[in-house]
Backbone:
């Protein structure tokens, strides 16, 4: 209020003499101009308050329609921002303090009023109500901030153990403020027993002035029996002359959701740590952000070495071509899961077969943010599969194809012949008088002779030629892109080498010869089995002509 400003004063006083004195005192003010409105009862005063702007109220507490502190309460109820000065005829300090507690800003004893005291009281009341208004607005803002942040507030008078809690502090635990009360012991009783050592470990050093802040996460018991996780922070604001804490203020933030999320994350990480498969999480650029222990075991790289690197910088073997990786990236960047097998390299340089599954992880907007790769070493499985395949497709003694798989390969070759119209030579071979070796030297020697003949065939035949063991001492060969004449040359060489290379075993020199029949496979041959039958007939002809010779089915 400046000196040039009019101050509108409402005087509620039923004594005309007292009202006249107040008017004279206000007129005598040398610096301020006052406009006085006088009413003799509270009801009329309330009507004025409702109808026009009043700067300050002077009120006697002995009115025809209201007496005592109820008068102040009624005016304060009508407006929270109007300064109230109580006029009393009694010098009763205790009563005057009660008036202040009810909402008055000041009080004056009528017998002691003069211009200076009255103007000073008005100035003080206006200043105080302004401060109270600002404080009220600040409290409202604070309350809204606490409400918006869902923060419970506590204000602890340490010597008495009394605590003021806000509504959120109580409702966070399912209570009302009346149920909570104002004793620090309620908080102590609600803290989880296992968490109390953590609380005291942070609170006591702070109360001794050793730390700037009290801060701890602990659990409080909800009214319905479950535990609420809170982040409890506070600070001592007042100390006495002896350095003892007087007042501390702090907040409780409900962190139950975060704790539940942390527990779930811990469970997931623990689960991923226990699985036997390697698990790796990367960003969208394939930079590794996390890997489990199985990844370390699988690759030989520690997590410390892996994080920040791309998998292809660690384990790429070079066995996959660019098209392989192009297909992989096309799949996962389109939001789909990629599954496949890949050859990777361990830290020590060893190659291994890996079964890999890569899945994209999207955010709430559907954008890919991470990739999760699950890696399994399948080298042993691949080895066993190879062994099983060999057992299923090859002859265990010679290593050549067994009859069933040889016939399957021959059928495939015949299909290729019909497409490309080229010729293939098919040979049937039978070791001459092989039964005599078994009978004379025993079956182990017979097996050794079969392996001896297999070694000669491997040495003499081309890589593209396919050999199968059809029966006991009977073999078949098909030679792609081969006509009758070159087939005869190869067969003759094979016959001659075997005849000139007896088996040496246990100081015995055991000779043997082979009979060979040849047939040509071409597009008009009918079936692969027909061609093999013709080669078998040519073999029969070779045996009829004295064995140890080659014959061609014409």
Residues:
């Amino acid at each position: 209020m400046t000196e040039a400003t009019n101050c509108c004063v409402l005087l509620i006083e039923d004594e005309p003499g007292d009202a006249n004195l107040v008017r004279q005192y206000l007129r005598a003010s040398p610096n301020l101009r006052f406009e006085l409105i006088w009413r003799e009862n509270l009801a009329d005063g309330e009507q004025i308050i409702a109808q026009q702007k009043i700067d300050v109220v002077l009120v006697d507490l002995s009115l025809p329609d209201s007496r005592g502190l109820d008068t102040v309460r009624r005016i304060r109820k009508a407006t929270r921002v109007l300064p109230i000065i109580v006029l009393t005829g009694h010098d009763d300090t205790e009563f005057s303090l009660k008036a202040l507690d009810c909402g008055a800003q000041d009080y004056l004893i009528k017998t002691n009023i003069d211009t200076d005291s009255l103007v000073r009281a008005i100035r003080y009341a206006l200043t105080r109500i302004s401060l109270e208004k600002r404080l009220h607005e600040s409290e409202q803002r604070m309350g809204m901030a606490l409400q918006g942040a869902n923060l419970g507030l506590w204000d602890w008078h340490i010597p008495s153990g009394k605590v003021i809690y806000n509504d959120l502090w109580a409702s966070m635990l399912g209570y009302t403020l009346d149920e909570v009360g104002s004793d620090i012991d309620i908080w102590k009783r609600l803290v989880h027993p296992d968490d109390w050592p953590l609380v005291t470990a942070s609170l006591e050093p702070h109360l001794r002035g050793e730390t700037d802040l009290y801060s701890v996460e602990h659990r409080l018991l909800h009214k319905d029996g479950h535990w609420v996780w809170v982040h409890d922070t506070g600070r001592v604001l007042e100390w006495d002359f002896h350095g003892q804490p007087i007042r501390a203020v702090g907040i409780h933030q409900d962190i139950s959701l975060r704790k539940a999320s942390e527990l779930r994350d811990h469970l997931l990480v623990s689960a991923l740590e226990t699985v036997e498969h390697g698990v790796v999480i990367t960003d969208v650029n394939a930079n590794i952000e996390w890997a489990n222990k199985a990844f370390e075991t699988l690759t030989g790289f520690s997590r410390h070495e892996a994080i920040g690197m791309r998998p292809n910088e660690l384990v790429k073997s070079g066995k996959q071509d660019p098209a392989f990786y192009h297909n992989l990236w096309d799949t996962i960047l389109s939001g789909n899961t990629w599954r496949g097998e890949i050859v990777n390299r361990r830290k020590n340089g060893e190659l291994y077969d890996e079964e890999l599954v890569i899945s994209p992880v999207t955010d709430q907007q559907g954008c890919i943010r991470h990739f999760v790769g699950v890696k399994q070493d399948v080298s042993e499985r691949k080895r066993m599969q190879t062994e099983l395949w060999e057992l299923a497709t090859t002859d265990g003694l010679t290593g050549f194809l067994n009859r069933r798989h040889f016939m399957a390969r021959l059928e495939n070759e015949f299909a290729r012949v019909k497409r490309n119209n080229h010729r293939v030579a098919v040979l049937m071979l039978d070791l001459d008088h092989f039964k005599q070796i078994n009978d004379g030297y025993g079956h182990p020697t017979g097996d050794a002779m079969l392996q001896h003949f297999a070694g000669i065939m491997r040495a003499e035949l081309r890589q593209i030629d396919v050999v199968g063991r059809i029966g006991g001492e009977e073999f078949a060969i098909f030679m792609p892109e081969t006509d009758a004449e070159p087939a005869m040359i190869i067969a003759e060489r094979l016959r001659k080498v075997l005849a000139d290379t007896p088996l040496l075993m246990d100081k015995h020199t055991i000779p043997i010869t082979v009979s060979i029949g040849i047939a040509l496979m071409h597009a008009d041959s009918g079936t692969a089995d027909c061609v093999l039958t013709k080669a078998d007939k040519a073999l029969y002809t070779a045996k009829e002509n004295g064995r140890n010779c080659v014959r061609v089915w014409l």
Summary: Residues 115-149 form the longest helix (35 residues). The mean pLDDT is 88. The first strand starts at residue 6 and ends at 12.
